Task: structure prediction
Amino acid sequence: MHSKVWDSIFRSKLPINTNLDRSLVIFNSLTLHIHPVKVREKAIKFSYTFYLGMISFFLFIILIVTGVLLMLYYQPAIPNAYENMKDLQYVVSNGMFLRNLHRWAAHLMVISVFLHMIRVFYAGAYKPPREFNWVVGVVLLVLTLLLSYTGYLLPFDQLSYWAVTVGVNLIQYIPVIGEKTKFLFLGGHEIGEYTLVRFYVLHCVILPLVMVLLIAFHFWRIRKDGGLH
Amino acid sequence: MCSYKTESNNENKIKRRKFLSIVGNSATGLVTFGALAVTIDFLSPNVIKERPPKFKVGPIQNIQPDTFIYEPEYRVFVVRDGNGAFYAISAICTHLGCNVKWIDSNIRNDSSVAIACPCHGSKFNRKGEVIEGPAPKGLQRFRIKLSDDDLIVDTSDIVSEEEMYLKV
Amino acid sequence: MSKIKIIYAVTSILFLLLLAVSPLKEIFKDWRNFQNSFNSYTDSFPFKVAKVDNGLKQIWNKNLGIIDRCITCHVGLNENKLSNAPQPFTSHPKIYHDNEKYGCTVCHDGQGLSTKYEDAHLPTEFWDKPLLPRKYIESACYRCHDDLSDKFTPLHNKGKELIEKYNCVSCHDLPGIPKQYTPDLNGVGTKIKNKQWLIDWLKNPSLYATNARMPNFKLSETEVTILSDFLFSFKERRNSQSLYPLPEYYNTLKKDEDFIKLGKVSFSEARCISCHSIEGKGGKLAIDLIKVASKASEKWIYSCIKNPKAIMPGVEMTQFGFSDKEAAAITAYIESEFVDWNINEDEIQNIKPVTGYYEKGIEIYNKYNCGGCHKLDIKEIKENKGPELTTISNKKLYQIEWGKSNLKHSLYEYLENKLETPRAFGENTRMPEYKFYKEEITAITAYLLAQRNNEVPQNYLVRKNKVQPFKPQGVIGKTFEKYSCLKCHSVNDYGGKIAPDLAKVGSQLNRDWIRKYFNIPYSLRAIVEERMPKLFISTEEVEMLLDYFESVFIDDNLDFKLNLTEKPEELEKGKMLFKEKYGCQSCHIIDGSGGYVGPPLDNVGERLKPTWIYSWIKNPQKYKANTIDPKTGMNEEDLLLITSYLFHKRSW
Result:
């Protein structure tokens, strides 16, 4: 184990015997140091956070994995988009399973993110010094909803067509910039090929990227604001 | 008695823990491999939008002896030689898949260069055999058939030189 | 710690089970079942049937935008030996199109992408076009073709006729369907004698005449009253000929029996019942006359007989060459016979019109788009059409107002029900009720299902040459118009389908025979009752038409010399050939005996020109595509002998 390769990847030296070594393992790891080196058992009790943040994060991972797989069978074009949905349903092996997995994970993520917010609220965890992380969290909630919404158009059936029509017309009521924003979202005056591509890029590239960055920042702030107490 | 019992209890506990670990690990292992298998199954398409391998060239009168026609969609040359026999050769260079070009349609013998590849300079005779450079082998030959006066080329049926001719 | 281990073990096993569901579902898909049972089914056959290799199959036609996976289960489609196999293994009946090239849904509709029975065939939430019932498949032909004969699309063609007949185009836009004649209502107050009649008619036209073309608008009592007052107020005949005054002797003679008899004779000589029916007996082209004297005024009837085109602009009724006396006599005959004895004339006549009937009348008139059929020259009339039907078949299901009906959602079912009970879908619908028969509904639905935008690429379209309209100018044109020749006859397929095409009549018929026929028309075939009406046409007009026929309605290919024989022994030989060798008598009557299928051939030499007889026998279908007269392929010698024999069948 004590090879050059191991050392180049993991900073902690084996064997780990002392408490200092153990602390260093946590301290030097990106993935583990969400908690401080030492925590009280009470602080990681299930009933304290219900792991809602982590559940949301894992659902996000599932969504990324299934989403990438679904992208392999999807063309954001008319009428291909709808035909591709039918393909997933009827001819692609396990296509329906993956599509449903993506769909249910998306629904559950909205629920868990929302519950997470309620938990933070009732635990008073938004109070100083964590008020900025609360703001980041709210942005993450909005992003989650936007991801849900942009994904809704992609099957391009009647349901999604009208949902997006209504949604985009809501934007129109924003004073001054409303009309222009709607035009930018649709890439035209009504839903068409460009709208589909725009929603596709938002759903698959822009929003997930922002989401990943903000999640990283959110996690980092948890630790810097004093972890879970 | 008493101490023995606790000892065996502890042993049982350890046994049970071990058993549960094995169950959990193997299930997780199966899930991992299963998920991998399911994903690979998912990744290989069951139906593909491909054009049918056979295509119609048209009636035989369309091609005069010592001429050829090029079918761009299938990348195939359909040639009629001086004896009036038809054959079909692929226009895909066997080197790296560029489209070969017919440079001289007046060639009558098999030893001269009739077809050349613009990418890396491979040269072929009019039967598709390599005359020069980097192409490792001759152009593919497809079976050509006659049905109701129409010539039909089957690109899924690759034949040898002896079988490639259709004599009319 | 042990608790966590238990949770770990249980959840991982649950997770395993969850994941196993999907591959298991893949393995037990329906289509795999079908393919396996196809292979075991065909094993039992004495002959060899190609096995199907397991896997999804599809037909892809990029140009038509079709991906059809039907052949995944319908595996025996092109295996002729399986014509009696059960579905889904049966073979496809022989058709003109290669299904591997065109796919399935191009004709059948349904969800070709699907590999599940329900989704592919039945109406589902996520597919607008379920499988078409077999009877409607012909509608799909019109995605590429634009004109197919009754042999291919009988139902659709029947539907087209019906749509024309019921004048659907007065409210719905449909391309290529001509508008029918409908009376204009200027001066309707001078035509209708009896307000009660108008009220009854507006309530339900089919009670007056079962073949009334006007549908039932289901007007309320008040609407009927207002509308009848409104219409009755139009006493003035604007923009058209005023009614002709009855001759003075009419009033004195109208009860005279001889006068009435003259009317009756002229009525039957003119064969009015070729077009009109009387108590349901007679022609179907025009309205039943049984109660007409209780509906229309004497003056109007007289004017109508005298010159229908003048008082009903655009009407198809022939303008007969009656003298004033004959016309008056026919009027007297109609007044004496065709009366509704049940109607009480006095009761309603003196009731005062409802206040504000004019404005309200216009409102009702516009609401039901009465102006679509009936012209009324006042400026308040507005066009208020129903939805256009040119692309009805493209309609998406969500665009359809289903009302409270509990139909299985598909377009053809909607159309069927809309035609049957037009007001069933929502309260604001105003389509009237036609009381169609079931067969009529299916036919019209078949036609409407063919009304679509062309989604297919240009090179798939099969367009027939459109029929060239025949519109002669000048005096010939006016004469054709006057006698409505093209209502029954056609010229190169333009015109009516009731009587023979006239395009080659000059090469076909002898001038003398036509002249006689104009004078005394008769039915060529004894068993067919329909015949040309007597038009009371003047000699000059006849001669002019004959000149025209002989110079224009000519086939130059029939202008050749025939070496006809006159020798009696050869004519006898022709007779033997006619009767014995070719057995023509089984269909044609000659010398008083024979079959009733074809026209009798006694005196055929008087009627037909010899070159026509010769050419017709040589190839009957060349001159009339759908005739059942067989093409015998007889040799030149026999042909000449038979032609000579028939040509000598004449009284001169």
